[in-house]
Design the sequence.
């Protein structure tokens, strides 16, 4: 039985979702009254109460700390979530790919920063075209990228905003800090079609350091190189408004470092088992944010004692990290991957094993690449499914 | 510049693709003359020469061995490839999920066997509905599944063909061999809406055993339980035409076992690094089939000596196996995963490192879940892109 629109809105507001629903309730698909039990499995769920609490906490943290906030949308790849982040105070979103940038601009999201380097002419032309339509910026880490982007911006008769991406120890992307970065900033300044707006310093190697003190040290060491580089850039007569960095693991570290103007922290909106294990300021489990993202699975085989097989395997849970899925409300069960389609739940110390047809819910090991396996997220409050959100930015946008 | 249809067909035939193109050239998207260099990366490629050689080899093997052949489509999730398999002699395809079954039936593929157990009422109803439209079969491993399926088939006023799924040592799905399987066969026989057509015995635990002799032993041991069970079923007065089993690792073992009527081998069409390491009948590398599936990536950062960063990470290559991506034509380079978006190529023993903007091509570690990360496969012959095939069966078919 479909519920009507007024009833849906009333229910949404009544359950305290005013903030989350504000940006575009119309874009939510209105659901028949559905519960988790009605969903085909494996299904990706976001718990709205936890999601909203995470959103509020980060928004308030950034406001108190006087920092801007541009959460990484590669975590969710979902325009509906980006809208909620912007409504909560984010100045925009970071993205990792050109299709993600295109999807966010198409959804009207402002301040879209592409954090990954691109060197293919086709992608560079797409970003230059996008700069003519929306509010986008690119990170660049090499003279060749600057050159190609300047040519594409000229061809598109536009001016593209760029950040110099600095490798502060992550050893993946960016130019080396110090003089090489200053040189790249100068090169950008020489093009009429590029506008240097800031620096990017993502310390990916610091984000998952276990233990708060060690993490604090790693992140400060990394960002000191960025601050030093910014000072050199300023000394060379080049103004940069933005210094963008930060991760979910270091949000409360980086926001105390003078000079860091905005945080890119993204995973906090969902959290995952791998972030939980890094520990918080006090305690061995990182509890600053609540685990909001789960996979719902069904027991499809239970032939052997002490063992149940669920329909969630490699295709349902990203398996790149050592952390295992954490079963909710079922103590003494351990998940092991068992191929593309299956996982095995083994009972330890005589725990009760779910029966054939039973459902289990698991906190995901690694949120971003797990989201990448799905086309939709079911937004649930308690047992009820309130909306279905398309993970539309995960797709290559070129039509088939 | 688009090439016209006649020219396209002529080119296809001229390059010896008659067999592969035969089933539905009209369904191929005709491409502008494109080469690999034109593709945005990361991109999933299938080498048509190798793909066609693999297809031909398996088809001829099965014909010689007098076995039917129902390749597993969970490997490719692609109706275009299923069509080519059927045109080459396959009696149908196996599938692992309900959306895969629906996509294959919609594409007109006959003999679609769902090999994974389902217990959700919604999915069972969808399969019963599908049985009314196409030629489908389900594997069942538990009395509860039989009961639910019989109810759904009755409600849909249809008769559904089923196989008894036997757990021959894989410990994931299926009923135990011997009396429990016979009991399940009897239960199926009591429903007017179910038709028992055979047994399924997938020895997943044998498929990747390293070394031919050890693998031969493991597979024979497993399938002996299936044969024994079939004899008991026959003795109980129940006829079963099909005994379905086999994997890419054991195709030339299982096809010599009396009683195995058809092979489910799927990965052979693409091969992957993880199958290569299991060894063949002679030699440490398994060379029976050629590695046809690759990921094309671009070097997007090259800041550090002896190290290049490519745009293919967790989202581009399934990382559940120990095997690494194998770089083609670039000796002395080793790939390491570096997050969602990136991989690092490290030079060993002073090998040449590709430069910024260079492209590299890698044999994938594990074919099935890598395909699951993409929306399309580019079918290439040499440098030329001949077609783009939609991986349409990977999606949940329920509309968003």
Sequence:
């Amino acid at each position: 039985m479909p519920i009507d629109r007024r009833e849906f809105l009333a229910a949404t507001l009544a359950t305290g979702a005013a903030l989350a629903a504000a940006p575009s309730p119309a874009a939510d698909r209105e659901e028949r009254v559905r519960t988790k039990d009605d969903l085909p499995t494996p299904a990706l769920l976001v718990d709205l109460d936890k999601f909203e609490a995470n959103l509020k906490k980060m928004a308030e943290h950034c406001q108190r700390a006087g920092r801007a906030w541009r959460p990484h949308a590669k975590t969710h790849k979902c325009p509906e979530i980006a809208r909620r982040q912007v409504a909560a105070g984010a100045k925009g979103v970071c993205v990792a790919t050109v299709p993600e940038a295109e999807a966010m601009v198409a959804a009207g999201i402002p301040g879209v920063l592409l954090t990954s380097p691109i060197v293919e002419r086709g992608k560079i032309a797409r970003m230059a075209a996008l700069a003519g339509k929306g509010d986008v910026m690119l990170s660049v880490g090499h003279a060749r990228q600057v050159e190609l982007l300047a040519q594409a911006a000229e061809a598109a008769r536009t001016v593209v905003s760029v950040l110099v991406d600095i490798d502060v120890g992550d050893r993946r992307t960016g130019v080396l800090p110090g003089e090489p970065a200053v040189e790249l900033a100068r090169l950008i300044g020489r093009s009429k079609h590029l506008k240097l707006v800031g620096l990017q310093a993502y310390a990916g190697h610091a984000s998952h350091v276990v233990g708060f003190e060690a993490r604090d040290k790693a992140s400060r060491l990394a960002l000191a190189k960025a601050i030093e580089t910014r000072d050199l850039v300023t000394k060379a007569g080049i103004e940069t408004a933005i210094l963008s960095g930060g991760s979910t693991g270091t949000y409360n570290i980086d926001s105390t470092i003078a000079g860091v103007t905005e945080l890119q922290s993204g995973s906090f909106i969902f959290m995952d088992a791998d972030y939980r294990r890094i520990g918080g300021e006090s305690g061995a489990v990182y509890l600053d944010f609540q685990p909001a993202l789960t996979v719902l699975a069904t027991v499809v085989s239970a032939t052997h004692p002490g063992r149940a097989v669920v329909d969630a395997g490699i295709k349902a849970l990203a398996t790149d990290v050592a952390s295992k899925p954490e079963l909710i409300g079922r103590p003494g069960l351990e998940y092991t991957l068992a191929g593309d389609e299956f996982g095995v739940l083994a009972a330890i110390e005589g725990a009760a094993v779910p029966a054939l047809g039973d459902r289990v819910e698991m906190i995901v090991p690694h949120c971003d690449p797990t989201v990448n396996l799905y086309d939709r997220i079911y937004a649930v409050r308690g047992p009820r499914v309130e909306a279905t959100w398309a993970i539309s930015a995960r797709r290559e946008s070129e039509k088939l």
Q: What stands out?
A: Chain A touches chain B through 62 residues (CB under 8 Å). DSSP finds 13 helices and 18 strands in chain A. The first strand of chain A starts at residue 34 and ends at 35.
